[in-house]
Each structure stands twice: as structure tokens, then as C-alpha cells.
TrEMBL record:
PROSITE patterns: GLYCOSYL_HYDROL_F1_1, GLYCOSYL_HYDROL_F1_2. The lineage of its organism: Bacteria, Pseudomonadati, Pseudomonadota, Gammaproteobacteria, Enterobacterales. One of its GO terms (molecular function) is 6-phospho-beta-glucosidase activity. It is an enzyme of class 3 (hydrolase). Its EC number is 3.2.1.-, 3.2.1.86. The keyword Hydrolase applies. It holds the Pfam family Glyco_hydro_1. Signal peptide: none annotated. NCBIfam families: PRK09593.1 (NF007158), PRK09852.1 (NF007356). The keyword Hydrolase applies. The active site is at E374 (nucleophile). This is 6-phospho-beta-glucosidase.
């Protein structure tokens, strides 16, 4: 076997999120969270965008998160499957409302603490390092209703208390932490990203960027607390990654792509560099608002993250003539269709070289280790007469992206690890579907919530096991 270009201590594994996998949405004292109110079907997008207020559940709608894939009750078996593949890292999230059901309590829910202690201990039993996201599109609904979620500065206090509780309760079990998942999605899906619901007359841009400021302050304080609780803790930020390409070499297209990249990177600029970027003053001025900033905020923001984590599914295209009609509606982050690359069944451009481009750009910009914590192909999988799932299309996608990640490492970029998205089939965050599958493990459940929830190893399961065993040297 040829020598691997991946470091000997490279972490290989997969990723899920509590709200897309756990289910048991009110079990063990858990409170209702934002994702529990997002239905499957025609109203889903309006709710995710914060345009349709949903503070209570409806009898006539299906909520995929309520049962999801029942990871809450089946995690020991699922982690055993991950260990069988050879995982050395498993990314998941903590449901905030499982620890603090309302979000503003002083004392945590003991059942929630016990569940996550058991979950992380199960990982360690199999020599799997947990990588834990504190807030993965998951805000207690009580905080949305009582405080307006991240509109309110009070959220900083609630989130830092929650984070400290987690750092102390799980000390010795978890050392890799992420503050906010895909923090830039706040701009594109405000209710999903940050629990924001708009009122009539709102300056929506101001609401979003003020909420972003509160999250950035919270993230910086949480990073500081993590290091105080245990200096070995490593804290990362998390970007929904993928560069924008200019649609042509027309200068207006190049500028449009640069502006679109800045829109996404704005958050990471603050979290990784410790200050608002130079372009932000003009950005806020042109959007017609001033941020409410407290004395001392600039000092707080200097608590920068240890590493930069990101998701990568697709690159994007931008032009000076971009509008609602010509941009791709398949993804929440709007983009023009790239004629030079193929697309997935859901219209996401498949661009492995784009991953290498994105990684080089981010390391050039931040000079911090990278961690690719989401990457995968959503596809419809068929179970054949023999009960097999031959997902060669997923193997092809992952192989080419792992190669590109290897090229980035050879470019000199320090990379901590790789967690493919949805290592076990789960509810799609974008569409609420189960049929948009990402996993190495098939879960018997359909888009309406029917099925046995039985787990089946796909062809990609055995392929990824071989990749991990060879530390990325054998991708055949």
C-alpha cells in the first residue's frame, strides 16, 4: 500500500446533528426547540426564513424532528456501527433544550446531562473522539417567544451559562467543541439559523446583523470559558463553506463574487481574527443601520477560536446580474448554475477542486488549522432484491473530495480531520426529507415518517472502513 499523505493523527469519522437524528423531542425533560416547530411540506421554507410565525404545533402537519431516526434510544448500536467502520471522531450536537428546557434556567436538567454523558462515554469506549457543536440550528422555543431569540443581548448570558454547564459536565469526555453550526446561515434562513422571526416594519438586515453580533460576542466568551475550564479544550467556529466563482471575467462579476464571499466569511473574519473586518463599516452603512455595541465588546471579540471548521458540499457562482429568477433555488445560499460541473439530484454543484480552492483560501486568510466537518452527497438510495444498497455514486463523490482534501494537505494546510455529513441517514435540514440520504448506514424510514428504523450497511460503509484503515491511502 502506498504511504498516506494524511497525518498519522488525522481524525476520520462522520457527523450528525441532534435535531436531525435524536428524535425523542420531549423525552427526558427536553423542552421544545425551534426545529421542532418546522414542518415538512409547503410551509417549511417560510417558517425557516422567519416569515411565518410558528410558536405552537399543528395537528395537520408532520414534524420530522419529533422522531427523526430515534438516535436518542439507539445511539449505542449506532456508535458500534461507527466503531466498526473505524471512526476516530464523531461529530454531533447537544440539544440546548435538553440541558435547559426553557433556556433561561439556573440549574440544568439532570436527565439531559446524564444522556450526553452516557453518549460521549460510549464514544470514548470505542476510542472515538467526540466533536461537539453547542448550537446546531437549535434554540429553545421559550427563548424565541420570551426574548425574541438572538435579537436580545440577554441571549449572551443564557448561552454562556449553557456552554459553561456543558464544559464542566463533560470535562474529560469532550475536548473538541464548535460554538455555532454554519453561523453564516443566519443571513439566509434566519429562523433555522438563529430563531429569528420578523415583525412588520422590521429592518430585516439590521435584525440579522444585530443577532449576529450577539452570537459573535457569545462565541468569543464561550471560547474563553472553554479554555478556563480546561486548557486542553479546542474550540472552533463553523462556516457553511464553498467559494463563489465569478460567472465570467467581467469585472462586475468578479466584484459580485468577492462580495458574496465576504458575506459568508464575515462571521469567520470576526471569530478567527478577533475584530470586525475592514469592509463591515461600509456594509452596515449601505444597509442603513448601526450596530448596538457595548463598551468592552471589542475586547471580548479578541478571544479567537483555535481552529476553523467548515462544511463543503458545493462551490457557487455569482454575477453582477444575479437575481431571484436566475439563481439556483435548490440551496438556501443562492447561486448561479455553473455550466462546467455536474449537479446532484437536488441541484447542488459537484466540484471537488472547489474544496481545495476553498481550503487554500481559508488557510491563506486565517492561518489556523482547518477541520472539514461536513461533506457528502444527498441522493435517493434504492434497496435491491438482495437487501443491498449499492451507492457507488456516493463513493465516487467522497473519493474525489477526499483526494482534493489530500491535495490541500500537500499544499501545506494543517487539517485536523474529516467528518462526512450524515454518516447515518437522517432528516435533511433543508427539505425535511428522509429520501435525501447521505449516510453509510441506511435507515428504514420514509418522508412521511413510516418505516421500521432498521439500520443497514450500504456499499459505502465497507468502502469508508477501508479508507480509514489505510489512513486515506486506499481510495479504490
Amino acid at each position: 500500500m502506498s504511504a498516506s499523505i494524511f497525518p498519522d493523527d488525522f481524525l476520520w469519522g462522520g457527523a450528525i446533528a441532534a435535531n436531525q437524528a435524536e428524535g425523542a423531542y420531549l423525552a427526558g425533560g427536553k423542552g421544545l426547540s425551534t426545529v421542532d416547530t418546522i414542518p415538512h411540506g409547503e410551509h417549511r421554507l417560510a417558517v425557516k426564513l422567519g416569515l411565518e410565525k410558528r410558536f405552537s404545533l399543528r395537528d395537520d402537519e408532520f414534524y420530522p424532528s419529533h422522531e427523526a431516526i430515534d438516535f436518542y434510544h439507539r445511539y449505542k448500536d449506532d456508535i458500534a456501527l461507527m466503531a466498526e467502520m473505524g471512526f476516530t471522531v464523531f461529530r454531533t450536537s447537544i440539544a440546548w433544550s435538553r440541558i435547559f428546557p426553557r433556556g433561561d434556567e439556573k440549574e440544568p436538567n439532570a436527565e439531559g446531562i446524564a444522556f450526553y454523558r452516557d453518549l460521549f462515554a460510549e464514544c470514548k469506549k470505542h476510542n472515538i473522539e467526540p466533536l461537539v457543536t453547542l448550537c446546531h440550528f437549535d434554540v429553545p422555543m421559550y427563548l424565541v417567544q420570551e426574548y425574541g431569540s438572538w435579537r436580545s443581548r440577554k441571549m449572551v448570558e443564557f448561552f454562556t451559562h449553557y456552554a459553561r454547564t456543558c464544559f464542566e459536565a463533560f470535562d474529560g469526555l469532550v475536548k473538541y467543541w464548535l460554538t455555532f453550526n454554519e453561523i453564516n446561515i443566519l443571513l439566509h434562513a434566519p429562523f433555522s439559523g438563529a430563531g429569528l422571526v420578523f415583525e412588520e416594519g422590521d429592518n430585516k438586515e439590521q435584525v440579522k446583523y444585530q443577532a449576529a453580533h450577539h452570537e459573535l460576542i457569545a462565541s468569543a466568551l464561550v471560547t474563553k470559558i472553554a479554555h478556563e475550564v480546561n486548557p486542553d479544550n479546542q474550540v472552533g467556529c463553523m462556516l457553511a463553506g464553498g467559494n463563489f466563482y465569478p460567472y465570467s471575467c467581467k469585472p462586475e462579476d468578479v466584484w459580485a463574487a468577492l462580495e458574496k464571499d465576504r458575506e459568508n466569511l464575515f462571521f469567520i473574519d470576526v471569530q478567527a481574527r478577533g475584530a470586525y473586518p475592514s469592509y463591515s463599516k461600509r456594509l452596515f452603512r449601505e444597509k442603513g443601520f448601526e450596530l448596538e455595541v457595548l463598551p468592552g465588546d471589542d475586547e471580548i471579540l479578541k478571544n479567537t477560536v483555535d481552529f476553523v471548521s467548515f462544511s463543503y458540499y458545493a462551490s457557487r457562482c455569482a454575477s453582477g446580474e444575479m437575481n431571484e429568477l436566475n439563481s439556483n433555488a435548490a440551496n438556501i445560499v443562492k447561486s448561479l448554475k455553473n455550466p462546467y460541473i455536474q449537479a446532484s439530484e437536488w441541484g447542488w454543484g459537484i466540484d471537488p477542486l472547489g474544496l481545495r480552492i476553498t481550503m487554500n483560501m481559508m488557510y491563506d486568510r486565517y492561518q489556523k488549522p482547518l477541520f472539514l466537518v461536513e461533506n457528502g452527497l444527498g441522493a435517493k438510495d434504492e434497496v435491491n432484491a438482495q437487501g443491498e444498497i449499492n451507492d457507488d455514486y456516493r463513493i465516487d463523490y467522497l473519493r474525489e473530495h477526499i483526494k482534493a482534501m489530500g491535495d490541500a494537505i500537500e499544499d501545506g494546510i494543517p487539517v485536523i480531520g474529516y467528518t462526512s455529513w450524515g454518516c447515518i441517514d437522517l432528516v435533511s435540514a433543508s427539505t425535511g426529507e428522509m429520501s435525501k440520504r447521505y449516510g453509510f448506514i441506511y435507515v428504514d424510514r420514509d418522508d412521511q415518517g413510516n418505516g421500521t428504523l432498521a439500520r443497514t450497511r450500504k456499499k459505502s460503509f465497507w468502502w469508508y472502513k477501508k479508507v480509514i484503515a489505510s489512513n486515506g491511502a486506499d481510495l479504490s
